[in-house]
Known about the structure:
- 55% of the residues lie in helices and 9% in strands.
- It has 17 helices and 6 strands.
- It has helices spanning 3-7, 12-17, 73-89, 106-116, 133-142, 169-176, 182-208, 212-222, 227-241, 244-253, 256-269, 276-286, 289-292, 298-315, 318-333, 336-340, 343-355, and strands at 46-49, 62-68, 94-100, 123-126, 149-154, 157-162.
- Strand 5 and strand 6 (157-162) form a beta hairpin.
- Keywords: Signal.
Amino acid sequence: MKVSSLIKKSSLLMAMAASLSFTASAQEASLKPGAEVPSLELEGVTWVQGEPVKTLDEEGKLYLVECWATWCGPCIAAIPHVNDLSQKFSDDGLVVIGMNVWEDGLEKVQKFVADKGEGMSYRVAYSGGRSSAFADQWLKPAGAKGIPFALLVRDGKLVATAHPSEITDDLVKMALSDDFDAEQFAAKRAEEKAAAEAEDKKIQTLMQQEKWDELKAFANSELADNPSKQRTILGIAAINSGDWAEIQKMVEASEGQERDMMFIRSAFMAPSTDDAKAFATKALETFTESYLIEEGNIARNFAPTIARARFLWLSGDQDAAKASITKLKEQVDANEQAKASGMGSILDKIEAKLTEGEFPPASTLMR
Length: 367
């Protein structure tokens, strides 16, 4: 798997700023589990693929409204999972609706869906653009602050909101069962969310205070029942401590996206200690240009390219590092959407540091 593919599953700002969120991001919501959901027959909504869904209360049906956009890497990464859910459970009553949101350009969406073909075989609708009735009546009341953002609906009422990856086979089976108790489910989910938020608050506090040894101890003692999250936190502790030897061990013990994220985080967050060169040199054996570049996709290449440039710098090839950043800056400057996202200002800060003979962790430039 290319490093660029992991950007589809992780926020660029998360990689840069090392912020963590293990629960769905939401502000104070008025559309909560148990509440009746609005109609989908709204001004601006255009059905791009599949039969329009006029009601969300048909008996025996479970509706998954998955909000996405063509510009959103994590949304695109979620499509195979959502498509898999649709194919597995449509005969059992699951109705999947891919609602394109926060994006202007119906034609762009139509082309994207057509190009996806069977890889996006479920119903797809265009909400009406960045400012739409759907956003006002669904996303804002549900407290959505980012996408992908999924809403589960049964009998016309909201069951849950979540990241699409949290909509598992078991959850779908449970929500489709005849004895499903939406209120009981909502209460249990709220309890779990409160516990997760308390856990994340502790993690965030230790990170903000830069108490890396305490963070490591917390991960070892409190996160044993969540190995993936535990490895993530232990990796962050090692990276911020500049413990490149430990980072190398963790990279060697991981694979796929988890390994790639370790590479990204280490490049974006770890200080330039004496043993960084050995790690960077080793990383470049895998982190080659052909490994990470997806031609023409600036958003997905952005963080991996910066990461590789820093590895080049740490390994001693400063000219190649500068050339890589210069090339990326030219690509961003030539792309209006990339410029509007703030990528250019980040690269300006990196270039300024390069002229001073430094290539600090990119996360420090986001503060």
